[in-house]
Automatic annotation (TrEMBL):
Top-level taxon of origin: Bacteria
Beta-ketoacyl-[acyl-carrier-protein] synthase III N-terminal domain span: 107-168
Residue span(s) of domain Beta-ketoacyl-[acyl-carrier-protein] synthase III C-terminal: 228-314
Upper classification of the organism: Bacteria, Pseudomonadati, Bacteroidota, Cytophagia, Cytophagales
Species assigned in the record: Hymenobacter metallicola
Protein name in UniProt: Ketoacyl-ACP synthase III
Pfam family, one: ACP_syn_III
Keywords: Acyltransferase, Transferase
Gene Ontology molecular function terms on file: 3-oxoacyl-[acyl-carrier-protein] synthase activity
One GO BP: fatty acid biosynthetic process
Length: 315
């Protein structure tokens, strides 16, 4: 299967670290040192998970004349910050593009949902139930965030991305998916309490950030090695690493573990904050034109809960 095109949508409003300095005394330098985040985006009034997903979808379809809207025969949406848990992000996208009578599903496995969504596409393709899929990942973190939370309130940003995936190659520039691994790690460490979002009780909280940090570093590095070993490749064979955009210190730790130079990592955490399961897809959209023929890309993710995965791509 092939990723034909990727596009992103980011809200216009920029929230700098100075906002949190004024709000709760966290300095710009303190936030930079611990997270690498300088600013993040915030959805405007009237924007939400669904509207951002529709914007990203309209952009990706506009960029893909070889992938007409009418050809879409599967929509998979992913988010942990839903606008509506019944009329899901995938349903909203379906209504917006006007393609009826096709499979439409939404999933959530926290920040690793991008790869789980793509794995669902892989299953539909394998069963012969679809050939042209739209995957859309969207997070409205600020709708659930408590900005006064000095532990995690400064981490979150909003954004969305959409990917067009086909069973057959449509263009020479398509990214071929060579392998994909996902797994849950819900029984590890403090997975049950480290990061939670219980809508009937409270918004996003992260009381055990250190546990998240430790396991994210371990799992993102180990699953990257695993996907490479399964394909008889080494780290030296990878041109670009796109990690989940959670924390620049996590990215650097993973790079150090893999013995990979920092310039080969794609990062948007400094500009966008943690955009959840949309972060790696937004990074892929931003990097897409820079990936040369023959280059390989690994996307590696870790989500609260815990869940993790890696995907190996080649142009």
């Amino acid at each position: 299967m092939y990723i034909h095109q990727v596009a992103a949508y980011l809200p216009a409003q920029v929230i700098t670290n100075e906002h949190f300095t004024r709000l709760n005394g966290l300095s710009h330098e303190w936030i930079i040192e611990r997270t690498g985040i300088r600013e993040r985006r915030k959805a405007a009034p009237g924007e939400n998970t669904n509207t951002m997903a529709v914007e990203a979808t309209e952009r990706v379809l506009a960029q893909a004349p070889l992938f007409p809207t009418a050809a879409v025969d599967l929509i998979v949406g992913a988010t942990y910050t839903p606008h509506d848990t019944i009329y899901t992000v995938a349903h909203a996208v379906q209504r917006a593009i006007g393609v009826t009578d096709i499979p439409v599903v939404s999933i959530s496995s926290a920040c690793s949902s991008l790869l789980n969504a793509i794995e669902i596409v892989e299953g539909y393709f394998a069963m012969g139930k679809a050939t042209r899929a739209l995957v859309v990942v969207s997070e409205h973190n600020t709708a659930y965030n408590n900005e006064n939370d000095t532990v995690a309130g400064h981490l979150w940003g909003d954004g969305a991305s959409a990917l067009l995936i086909s069973k057959e190659r449509l263009a020479p520039t398509d990214l071929r998916m060579l392998d994909l691994i996902t797994a849950g790690a819900g029984g590890i460490g403090k997975a049950d309490v480290a990061v939670t979002l219980k809508p009937v009780e409270k918004g996003i909280v992260m009381p055990h950030g250190k546990d998240v940090f430790i396991h994210a570093c371990q799992y993102m590095a180990s699953v990257t090695r695993k996907v490479l070993e399964r394909n008889h490749l080494s780290v030296a064979d990878v041109s670009w690493l796109i990690p989940h955009q959670a924390n620049l210190r996590i990215t650097r730790n993973v790079l150090q573990s893999l013995e990979m130079p920092e310039e080969r990592a794609v990062s948007n955490i400094d500009r966008l904050g943690n955009t959840g399961c949309a972060g790696a897809a937004i990074a892929l959209a931003e990097q897409l034109d820079q990936i040369q023929t023959g280059e390989r890309v690994v996307i590696t993710v870790f989500g609260g809960g815990y869940s993790y995965g890696a995907m190996l791509l080649e142009r």
